[in-house]
Structure formats: C-alpha cells, structure tokens
Amino acid sequence: MHQLQDIHPNMDVFSSDNRRVGVVSQVMGSILLLNCETGNHLPTAIPLAWVVEVDGLVRLAKSGASLHWLTS
Q1: Given its phi and psi angles, is residue 13 left (phi above 0), alpha (psi -120 to 50 degrees) or beta?
Q2: Structural domain boundaries in the chain
Q3: What pTM did the predictor assign?
Q4: CB of 32 within 8 A of CB of 58?
Q5: I want to staple 59 with a disulfide (CB 3.0 to 4.6 A). Which of 8, 18, 37, 53 is the partner?
Q6: CATH class of residue range 4-71
Q7: pLDDT digit string (tens) for 22-31?
Q8: Three-state SS for 68?
Q9: SS3 string of 22-67?
C-alpha cells in the first residue's frame, strides 16, 4: 500500500504505462498539484485517488493516453 505522506515536492510522476507526466508541486488535501510538461507553467490538479504507488516516484493508475492533456 502506498503512503501518501511520502509524496513530496519535486518527485517525478509516471502513468501506469511508465510515461513521465510531470513533477509534484505540492499536496493539498486530496489533490496532487503537478508541474507538467505542457509549457503553460501552471500546476495541474489531479486526485490523490489516482496514486497507486509511491516508491521514490509517484505512480498513477491512469495510462499516458488517458492523461494526454497533461503532456500536450
């Protein structure tokens, strides 16, 4: 089981198919703010419920294809 308290700023975030989708900006309640590769420099909010593993990086239950809006 993942430990949400182990999520810290600057951790890389990966989709379920091992695609890097961004970097943790901060955790706010049940929301994870990411700095993404979109170039707009605005943090993107995703639900912590999508997190399935924290092992030095954050792994999400969603595939890269379902998260295309984070990286395009």
Answers
A1: beta
A2: 4-71
A3: 0.84
A4: yes
A5: 53
A6: mainly beta
A7: 999 999 989 9
A8: helix
A9: EEEEEEECCEEEEEECCCCCCCEEEEHHHEEEECCCEEECCCCCCC
